Amino acid sequence: GGGFDEQGNGPLFSPSNNWKHLLQLEGAGQLVHLRKLLEENQWWSWKPDVDIFAKGKGKGELEKLAVKAGRKYLVYFPDNFECKISVDKIIKITWFDTKTGTTQSGQVSTNSTYSPPEGWEDGVLIIE
To answer: Model pTM?
Structure first.
């Protein structure tokens, strides 16, 4: 079960070299957008920030994650549920669509509560 063969090899590490079909999956195509986001925001300098969440962090696979990237914060929303963010000063917010790699400007919330745009399954909130 779980995509493993009788030797315990998963789909990416199978000795049959039958991995090329995995490149056709939707998630594989989205890695291009992830790479762009990581490089444009200098991922190597990121520092995790757990104090940014005032309410709605979530748990397990639906836990929201945040990093400080220079003067920016990047917050990954694995779902479309709102979260209250605690940052001293928010000048501008932008949403990054993990499926398409496009960005969308957002409104700075007076109560600091945010959720991805309607219809998005997930997204990255970029706070400047």
So the answer is: 0.76
Closest among 73, 70, 71 to 49, alpha carbons compared: 73
Least confident of 7-21, 74-88, 95-109: 7-21
One-letter amino acid identity for 18? N
Rg (CA), the chain: 17
